[in-house]
Design a protein that fits this description.
Length: 415
């Protein structure tokens, strides 16, 4: 007698980095693990957070900082979250309106995505607007507790732009970014694909720089779920992690790029033209005035331990929450952030597959300037490069020093 499949409900947003969940269902990787994976599309990250908190979803495609924020008491509902797996690295970009791009280009903005030169031109435009009494530029991010928000602020601050003083940052759901830009409600945004290429495709914006240029091989989305569901469903969780691992390998295989694009383009998933989706999958991004060009490590599905939930990633996000006034630093808070990511569950689930995995659960971020072969449990891993564009290194063992070194920051609860 065939064993009944276990239903698992997963929320997601229409983004290319939802690919692992979509492929786990469409290619039967979840079914092979005894899971009937139901995918429910949402429009905002607040809805994802709230619906998983009240039990509408079992798991979700989730912003990497959201479980940390929940465990620090920064979410509306007091529900502990965990992240036992990452859903890839990179995938975001900063897009600006055509009008702003013209002003930036006049100040020397590059068409190669160089974040330092892009920031220099933006600083000049901001100063010119201020001198003539113009209103501050408005940039959008997808959620307050998001990689987009922190990488945007990090980039701005490293370029001498104070995010709290020199411009306005607001929140717009990813699928509405292009419309907000076209309507003139915002001047730019940081979002995941396909919503940067979509603006280029319809002529409403230009891509200024990318997440991978700001912080190479950096975290973006995780599989998020409540601690309660994980404890009640250990077998289903392990099976889902194995299915997502297999999906990550399938997604990264260049031979599957056309099929992956066609699946993601379906109306029930991203509902976008295939060329708009293919850009991120092939790392061929249109920057500035240029046509598509290869952007190294723009989006990584599997290699470089892309699905491993590094606790150093969690602690870097925590450092930014402190830096930008969302939470007061404490040893207890840092520990809550670290424990939000669960590499132990990842290792436990994937052990039977013989997957090469990091032996450590944290690493120094930004230290690898080139691809580096490292010993790992069950084999060898290739990590890096993983540098920040300004050359700063994040050592999770020196968290307090890192926080104290931030020259531009925001007072507590002023964000």
């Amino acid at each position: 007698m065939t064993k009944a499949l276990v239903p698992v409900r997963a929320g997601f947003l229409p983004l290319v980095d939802a690919a692992l969940l979509i492929i786990a269902r469409e290619r039967d990787f979840a079914r092979d693990e005894g899971i009937d994976l139901h995918l429910i599309r949402e429009t905002s990250w607040a809805n994802i957070r709230d619906r998983i908190s009240v039990g509408h979803f079992d798991v979700a495609h989730m912003l990497a900082p959201l479980p940390i924020a929940a465990n620090l008491g920064l979410s509306p509902l007091d529900v502990p979250f965990i992240a036992p797996m990452a859903l890839g690295l990179g995938g975001n970009a900063v897009t600006v309106s055509n009008g702003l791009w013209k002003a930036l280009a006049a100040e020397g903005a590059p068409s190669d995505g160089n974040p330092a030169r892009a920031g220099e031109s933006l600083r000049a435009v901001i100063a010119a607007r201020r001198n003539r009494g113009g209103s501050p530029l408005v940039f959008a991010v997808v959620q307050t507790f998001s990689g987009h928000h922190y990488e945007l602020r990090y980039w701005l601050a490293a370029c001498g732009i104070d995010p709290a003083r020199d411009l306005t940052i607001t929140v717009v759901p990813p699928p509405l970014m292009v419309d907000a830009l076209k309507a003139g409600r915002i001047d730019g945004y940081c979002v995941g694909e396909p919503w940067n290429t979509a603006a280029v495709h319809d002529g409403s914006g230009r891509i200024l720089t990318t997440k991978s240029s700001i912080w190479r091989s950096s975290p973006e989305k995780v599989l998020g779920l409540t601690s309660e569901w994980a404890e009640a469903n250990p077998a289903s969780l392990s099976g889902l992690l194995r299915a997502l691992h297999r999906a990550s390998l399938w997604c990264e295989d260049k031979a599957n790029a056309a099929d992956l694009t066609a699946l993601l383009a379906r109306p029930g998933y991203l509902n976008q033209p295939e060329p708009v989706i293919l850009a991120a999958i092939t790392n061929m991004i249109s920057l500035g005035d240029n046509g598509p060009s290869h952007v190294a490590d723009f989006l990584t599905f599997a290699s470089k331990a892309a699905t491993f939930p590094w606790q150093s990633h969690a602690l870097w996000f925590y450092s930014q929450m402190v830096r930008w006034g969302q939470v007061r630093h404490s040893k207890e808070g840092a520990e809550a952030a670290r424990l939000s990511y669960r590499p132990d569950l990842y290792r436990q689930a994937l052990a039977e597959l013989g997957v090469a995995m990091p032996g450590a659960s944290a690493k120094i971020e930004g230290a690898l300037v080139e691809r580096t072969h490292l010993p790992a449990a069950r084999g060898q891993l290739v990590l890096g490069p993983d540098g920040f564009f300004d050359g700063v290194i994040f050592d999770p063992d020196r968290l307090e020093d890192y926080i104290a070194a931030s020259k531009i920051h925001t007072a507590l609860h002023k964000i």
